[in-house]
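Thread: "does anyone have the structure for this chain?"

Original post by V.I.:
We have the sequence but no experimental structure in hand. Need at least a predicted one for the grant figures.
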Amino acid sequence: MNRTTVLRQILLAPPTLRASIFSPIVRHPPTTRRYAGVQSITQPSFWSNLVPKPLRKTARAAKKPKSREWNPATFFICIFLLIGSMSIQMIALRNEYATFSRRADAKIGLLREVMEKIRNGEDIDVEGLLGTGNAKKEREWEEVLQEIELEDQAWEKSQTPKPTQNPKLSAGDTSENPSKMETVQNSKSERSNAPRGFY
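Reply from O.Q.:
Generated one for you, tokens below.
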């Protein structure tokens, strides 16, 4: 029989007959474990897959990294970082001192104003102006007074001359050579009058 005639007869046959001729062949997969695709925690690949890919030790890590030479810009970067941080600290210190002096000047100005009014004989409420009874204002006054006292103490410490003992100059040497004593006194007078640690 000719192939085309067989095909034509099959196509003209009723559908039930066609289904029996071309019944699908059912192939059963080979019997395997139910969870064969799931890794066991005992397998090393399970644990290596938990590590992110950039952190895994692979063949790339086995290669020795190229030794890099010293970058000349590193020194300047470090120096500029240090200078920048110091300048930021100086700006912060300057701002802190400016706020302190503004607060102190405002409180001192208020005290002067109250004292002027009292000298002029005006009847004023001193406690009300200075904030007596108000815990917040009293705390502010205490802070300002403490800061002023600390600044005065630092100023006084910088003003008092520190006794320096020069082994070359003893009591007998000063009577014989007064010019040495004058040079020591001149060097003391040339020091700054600012408190220590201020700018």
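V.I.: this helps a lot. The chain has a mean pLDDT of 75.
O.Q.: and The chain is about 60% helix and 0% strand.
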